[in-house]
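Notebook, bench 3.
Goal today: get a predicted structure for tRNA (guanine-N(7)-)-methyltransferase from Methyloglobulus morosus KoM1 so we can plan the truncation constructs. The sequence was checked against the plasmid map this morning, with no discrepancies at the termini. Length recorded as 230 residues. Pasting the sequence as submitted so the record is complete.
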Amino acid sequence: MYLMPEQLPTRKIRSFIRRQGRITQGQEFALEHHWDKYCLTPDNPLDTIQVFGRLAPLCVEIGFGNGDCLAQLAAANPDKDYLGIEVHRPGVGHLLMRLEEQGLHNVRVYCHDAIEILTNNVADNSLAAVHLFFPDPWHKRKHHKRRIVQSSFVELLALKLQSGGYFHAATDWEHYAKAMLEVLSADNRLTNASLTDTYCERPAYRPLTKFEQRGLRLGHGVWDLIFIKN
């Protein structure tokens, strides 16, 4: 089932700003030469069998940054297919470099707004997992409305995850962790995987990023939240 245009939520506030940054020669080369191989157009609903040539568990990573974590997950789980969604072209270019270097065939990429892709392109009850690792916390109170994890986002998760599928978020900003815990816990279609109904230990499958490792050395906290669709 796909939402018709008249059913789509009105979305005036975005959770990101397009900071394109500097593109390296390698990233530019990858964007030019590998785009058609790995990147998908948002114009049509996603047909996973046509795209991946098989039916396998489908996992989504929203805002994959430079894509290193996504590439590691795809390499470690060849039996799963992955969708990466990222608006910043340098990060997309970096991931395309990794995919080509490692010969990974189980990853496809959208360079587009994640909410629009989930709403328009992904079928309901089709996702095995949604990952959101270190999203922009929008520190200032006046910018909290830009945070991606809001009740409307949780509503979308509950629609798109299959039964037993999970949402995994990680953040190094405690205030955002508390806000996410509150809004996720409020939806009775999702169950907290934490035995204490709070946060989870970092699962072995989630790679440590360089940014995270540096923060841990400095004594910064990291909070993982995992919620499973009933």
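The beta strands are 58-62, 81-85, 107-110, 127-133, 161-171, 190-192, 223-229. The chain has a mean pLDDT of 90.
Flagging this for group meeting.
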